[in-house]
Amino acid sequence: AQTVTQSQPEMSVQEAETVTLSCTYDTSESDYYLFWYKQPPSRQMILVIRQEAYKQQNATENRFSVNFQKAAKSFSLKISDSQLGDAAMYFCAYRRGGGGADGLTFGKGTHLIIQP
Amino acid sequence: DGGITQSPKYLFRKEGQNVTLSCEQNLNHDAMYWYRQDPGQGLRLIYYSQIVNDFQKGDIAEGYSVSREKKESFPLTVTSAQKNPTAFYLCASRESYNEQFFGPGTRLTVL
User: For the residues B58-68, what does the mean pLDDT come to?
Assistant: First the structure.
């Protein structure tokens, strides 16, 4: 079975600074997708960024970027120029590739605090 | 506006009662999902459905049941067999090869 591990229960960063959230995963599959979701206090799950395992290039979305190390099974999220609105729970998630409807496997999350 | 709706937002249940959580989507997505979230935990998959009239158990299906009679709807029933049903429940849907979109969630509390 696939597992996703987030080793940082909580992180704190000063506004405008850069922070990196860690995620490791375990799978025997070669085709899969990785995601970072944000859950603000409203509890709405919001997709931040996704990475296809077959792509060597790291995904970026504005201030958010990932460092995908396939051999090490590591998938960290970097947030640049942190803003107060970035404060939330962040979840790393995995999904097997292929045409099936498999659900996501989530890590336990990292609570990100932004200090003004 | 396309999206996923869940109702009610808050739900209270007495022990021993079954309760049904609603999930509707107008995104024309084939696949739908139910997740459970407990404090300090990530989301865990309860059930999922790839097409109408078909669904599969997830990691924590015991004490839950679902139906998928229409493409737009995927209700979840929490039965009296679920020993610890108090949790936050999230519904999601997905178009093939794309990411999942989530509803706003239902907070279930057993009194």
Answer: 96
